[in-house]
C-alpha cells in the first residue's frame, strides 16, 4: 500500500531532528509505525518476545543500535521507557529515540519522561490527508489573527462527506471494498474488545453489555450526555445494570487504547468568561467507528433522523453529529503540529455553545462553529458574534465550517465561512517563532 503523506510528518521530522526522544501515540491501525519508520535508522519490534528478552538481558542494547532507533509497541515492555529516559539523561543527543504505542500500559513507567520524551498524538486521516481539494484556508493562518480575506471553491457535497464518515481514516481500512467494509470494522472492533482489552489487564465479564455501552457512547457523539444517560441508554429496562466502577474501568481501558477521544471543555486561560461548563464532548477515535456501531450507512446518514434513544441534547440528524465529529477530528490533526489545543465552549446553563475553540499557548484562540448544512442562517453565527464581543482581540478569528461550495468572509462581521474540504493545517506558523 502506497504511503500517504500525513499532516504530522513535517512536525514529527522536526521533533526527531532536534529533540532526543519522542513517543507517537494513537489507536491501533492509525499509521504510527509507518510514519515513524521513515525517520528511523534501526528498529525494535516489541511484539516479538525475542526482542523483549534481549532487552531484559542487555539493557544497554538501545544505546548501541543505530539512531534514530524506533521502538515499536513500547507499551508491551514498559520498562523500556525508563531505559530510554536514562539514556537521554546520560547523553541527550537529538534524534536518538522514537517510541510508538497503541495503548498506555497499566504498569506505568517509574518516571514520566517530562522534559525528556515528547508526546505526539497521531489520529486517523483528516480530510486533507484523504485527498480532498487543496486548502483555501489553513488553521495556521487563522491563528495569526490577521483575518486576511480568502476565497475558494469545492465540488465536495453532502454525499461525499457522508461517504467519508462511514469510510473512516484508518489507512488499511480505507482500501477495503465497500461491500466488505462492515466485515473489516467488525474485525477491528473484535480485535480490540475481545483480545487487546484482555491483554491490557481488563477482565470483561459482560462483553455484550460492554458493546452495548460503546454503541450508546457512539450515539452520544458530539454531545455532553452524562455517563448515567449513556449507561441507561445501553441497558434499557435492565434491573441488573453494571456498577459505576465497572463502566469507569471500561472508559479507562478504552481511553488507554486511544479508542475514546473526548473533547475537553474550554477553560478560558485568559479568564474573561465565567459560568463555563466542564463536561467533555463525546467522540470516538474515528467517526466511522461510531457509524459502524450505530449501523449507519452513507445513504441512511442523509435520509434518517436521529435513531430512537440518541443522546444529543439538540434536535438534528445523525449526519450532523458525525459530520461535527469528522470536522473535530480534522481540526485536532491540524492543531497538533501547531502546538495548539482544541476544546469546546458551553456555558453552564447551555445558552451559549461554540463547537470548537483552538487555543494558542498564549491563550488567544480561534472559534469554529460546525454546520452540516451548505447554507447559513442568522442563528448559525450568533454565538460567534457573542464570543467576539466577550473576548475582543483575544479572539483571533471566527469561522463557520459547512458542507457548502465556497469559502469567503462575510462583509458585515468578518466571520469566515469555510467548507470542510477547504480547511487545512499549515506548518510552521509565523506566530510560533
Q: Could you provide a short overview of the structure?
A:
With 433 residues, the protein is an alpha/beta fold. 36% of the residues lie in helices and 15% in strands.
Task: Describe the protein's architecture and organization.
- This protein is an alpha/beta fold and 433 residues long.
- Helices cover 36% and strands 15% of the residues.
- Mean pLDDT is 90; it is low at 307-315.
- A seven-stranded mixed beta sheet has the order 7-12-13-11-10-9-8, with helices on both faces. A five-stranded parallel beta sheet has the order 2-3-4-1-5, sandwiched between helices. A two-stranded parallel sheet has the order 6-14.
- The protein folds into two domains: 9-121, P-loop containing nucleotide triphosphate hydrolases (Rossmann fold); 137-432, no CATH class.
- It starts with 8 loop residues before the first helix and ends in a 9-residue tail after the last strand.
Mean pLDDT: 90
The number of helical elements comes to 16
Low-confidence stretches: 307-315
The total tally of domains equals 2
Which percent bin holds the helix content? 25-40%
By DSSP, the count of extended strands is 14
Multimerization status: single chain
- For the termini, the CA-CA separation is 37 Å
Strand content: 5-15%
Largest sheet: 7 strands, mixed
- If strands are numbered along the chain, what order do they take across the biggest sheet? 7-12-13-11-10-9-8
Q: What's the helix-strand series?
A: HEHEHHEHEEEHEHHHHHHHHHEEEHEEEE
Q: Structural class given helices, strands, pairing? A: alpha/beta
Q: What is the overall silhouette?
A: globular
Q: What's the Cα radius of gyration? A: 22 Å
